[in-house]
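For reproducibility, we list the full input for the magnesium ion complex.
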Amino acid sequence: MAKFLNYINGEWVAPSSDQYYDVINPADRSDVIGQFPLSSSQDTDKAVACAHEAFQSWSKLLPSVRADYIYKFIDLLADEFEDIGHVLCREQGKPLAESIGESSRAVKECRYIVGESTRLYGISLPSERPNVSNTIVREPIGVIAAITPWNFPFLTPIRKAIPALIAGCTVVLKPANITPHCAVRLAMLFEKAEIPKGVFNLVMGKGSVLGEALSNNPLVKGITFTGSTGVGRQINLSAAQHFTKVQLEMGGKNPALVADFNDLNFAADQIISAAFANAGQRCTAISRVIVKKDQADALEKLIVEKAGQMTVGPGMEPTSKIGPVVDDAAGDDIMGYIERSKTEGATVALGGNRLTGGVYDNGYYIEPTVITNVSPDMEIAKQEVFGPVLAIIRVDDFAQGLAVVNDTPYGLASAVFTDIQANICDFMNTSQSGMVHINHGTVSESFMPFGGVKASGLGAFSIGTTNKDFFTNYKVIYHQYK
Ligand code: NAP
Ligand code: MG
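The corresponding predicted structure, in tokenized form, follows.
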């Protein structure tokens, strides 16, 4: 059985506890991927101390020199992304095409971010005084703790580590305990790219232990977190103690509002793919369709038909459009939401069950599920399910739809499908979400800023050009030169 180690200060080291846990394939629980470290706060403290030490020199390198290391990393990643896609599929469960899609998108995002080394610009302003130049420059903030979820187990760590390093910060990564293998592959790439020791560190184990330790460590100057809103809130509270900067990307209850849209077939295709990709385990998944009543019957019929044709199965099977959910506990959570929606009076129009028999008995498979007759006050209309479940809510008109769109604590992504220009403008101006999609599903791009508002996000948006606002602080310089 393969046993994996933490990567600290350029070396593969056992956790101080010398304890390990098994990681298994969600498509087939008899397939044990390996044993991974159950680390303790001693291990994170060590990693942070090494990252702090490495920061002293890494932060002083010319950005172009730091970029050279990352160019080498990208070349190695570009050679390995298909293999990493296979690792991802086995560990996380999403269909192989989606898994390779994730690792190839990592290449794209890296290629954009590495260019930020030449765009770490500040501002210069005319002074009020003669012979004074006023400038604002950026400085890297220090050690970054990156805490990541299991649903994009390769891309999310990349999206945090690479911009941090480009900006001159050093990194300690704590990946989700369900998907550490992808993080090991990332650390191996840094090792092969000969990144200086201590610049990138990986510590694996339980978030309740390691996340706490990282959030409370005063040498950590920034915490970039992607995960649930509850854990994000806890991190924010801990970080406040030492005024540690945070970048929090959290849950969503993303709506698609459909009203007066001629091409319902197109809308249904877009909604289905945004709802059921990665078995619905995407923070930006569409999980609520809000439809004007005159088009509701037709849209529901199309969605139920199309979702019903999606094949569920192991991610490695080319026919599978929906893979397993990530583990048994996630399956129980999802089934709980479905059951309670029935108690509240909603109708399960498609699916609603765990799949059993044959290959399904080996893993955690749930049917694509469409729930109709949902009213905006039901749990299924408000809470993030994080599974292959779509709720459909009917409204009388566009204005009521818009009110339902915003009637949630979340504010990540939203979509509208309408042919009426004035309604598009109303939606753009009124939708309380970080990302708005007009006449297509909630799919983001690799250079565009990514983030949310309300309970979905706090701090600088990640990906594109906004990310450096998290990894750098401003310094204001007044220079009397004569
Ligand atoms: P999670 O339970 O919040 O876990 C995320 C990370 O936090 C994991 O590494 C976890 O470690 C760690 N963690 C757990 N308890 C912690 C604590 N007390 N202090 C610090 N860290 C702690 O989320 P998840 O279940 O992995 O992922 C699903 C959630 O992520 C969903 O809500 C989804 O919407 C959200 N998400 C948001 C985005 C976005 O960009 N907005 C993207 C993807 C996912 P363990 O794994 O060891 O518990
Ligand atoms: Mg969790």
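The mean pLDDT is 97. The longest helix spans residues 63-92. Both points were considered when choosing residues for closer inspection.
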